[in-house]
């Protein structure tokens, strides 16, 4: 990757790594679906405003509503809802780790289905290391029974799978300005999230704290508006696996913020799991992959 792309990967890791402590803060007094709905409404509005005169590209780009809806489901609705719900039970640092497995899922999907990038023994080894790390983090007990925390942990993994699929399907937007898919997907997500929040959580009855509202504001500006612009820019220049490479850096950011800001204490299992996940993703994203060629500058 060129220097500019590496800088963008680092920036995206910071923007998304910081989202987990913000989510943890937001869901303290605001229900999970409502947090996701607010993120979609205000994040979409921010992105739409940033488009300015480019706004007509949303419907003139040739991208169909089902395509926007699929990306909205994979990149917003499913992961936001699952991770928000899980964050009410588990630490932000743990949510970061379990929701940062997208590179492994993206690799498996490209190897088994799209096959647009080479599958090497080194990458297979990386997948095994990462999955071993997941087991170490969740604990062997998770394989024999599903408990309260296990359900939350698996919800984060499901969100990570959704992100992995989104990274593969998102390459179809590579010829467009990053603002187009970022805005379109976020706005379409609100069509599901807002009615769901109104129906299941009655947000007019809640009394959010200023701290939670500031957490939502951070999610809107940094983890949605800014992050999605960088995300779709990277998909158009370095491809699927190159873009998801930020996930292992995101683990470090999220865990560090959880410890420093929220006072969380990582368990020995988590430390070992983090090490294995990082080694696994690094093994898959070091030199050797053939990223999608850039279609625009």
Characterization of the model:
The protein has 297 residues and is mainly α. The protein has one domain (3-285). Helix content is 74%, strand content 0%. It contains 14 helices and no strands. It is globular.
Q: How many DSSP E strands?
A: 0
H-E order: HHHHHHHHHHHHHH
Q: What is the helix fraction of residues, given as a range?
A: over 70%
The low-confidence runs, each spanning 5 or more residues with pLDDT under 50, are 142-147, 289-297
General form? globular
Radius of gyration: 18 Å
Structural class: mainly alpha
Please describe the topology of this protein.
Elements: H1 3-17, H2 19-26, H3 32-51, H4 57-60, H5 65-86, H6 92-98, H7 102-114, H8 121-138, H9 148-169, H10 179-201, H11 210-237, H12 239-244, H13 246-260, H14 268-285
Helix pairs in contact: 1-11, 1-13, 2-6, 2-11, 3-5, 3-10, 3-11, 5-9, 5-10, 6-9, 6-13, 7-9, 8-14, 10-11, 13-14
Features:
mainly alpha, 14 helices, disordered C terminus
Compact overview of the structure:
It contains 14 helices and no strands. The chain is an all-alpha fold and 297 residues long.
């Amino acid at each position: 990757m060129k220097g500019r792309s590496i800088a963008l990967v680092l920036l995206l890791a910071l923007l998304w790594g910081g989202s987990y402590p913000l989510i943890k803060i937001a869901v303290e007094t605001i229900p999970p679906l409502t947090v996701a709905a607010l993120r979609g409404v205000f994040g979409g509005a921010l992105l739409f405003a940033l488009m300015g005169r480019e706004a007509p590209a949303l419907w003139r780009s040739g991208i169909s509503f089902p395509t926007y809806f699929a990306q909205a489901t994979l990149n917003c609705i499913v992961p936001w809802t699952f991770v928000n719900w899980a964050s009410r039970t588990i630490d932000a640092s743990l949510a970061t780790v379990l929701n940062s497995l997208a590179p492994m899922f993206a690799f498996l999907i490209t190897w088994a289905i799209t096959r647009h990038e080479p599958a090497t023994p080194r990458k297979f080894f990386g997948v095994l290391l990462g999955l071993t790390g997941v087991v170490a983090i969740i604990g062997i007990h998770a394989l024999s029974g599903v408990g309260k925390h296990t359900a939350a942990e698996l919800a984060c993994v499901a969100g990570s799978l959704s992100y992995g699929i989104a990274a593969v399907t998102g390459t179809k937007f590579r010829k467009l300005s990053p603002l187009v898919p970022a805005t379109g997907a976020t706005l379409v997500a609100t069509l599901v999230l807002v009615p769901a929040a109104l129906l299941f959580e009655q947000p007019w009855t809640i009394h959010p704290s200023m701290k939670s509202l500031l957490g939502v504001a951070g999610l809107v500006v940094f983890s949605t508006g800014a992050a999605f612009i960088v995300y779709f820019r990277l998909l158009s220049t370095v491809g699927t696996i190159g873009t998801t490479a930020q996930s292992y850096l995101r683990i470090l950011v999220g865990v560090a913020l959880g410890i420093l800001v929220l006072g969380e204490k990582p368990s020995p299992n988590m430390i070992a799991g983090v090490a294995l996940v990082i080694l696994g993703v690094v093994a898959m994203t070091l030199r050797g992959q053939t990223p999608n060629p850039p279609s625009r500058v």
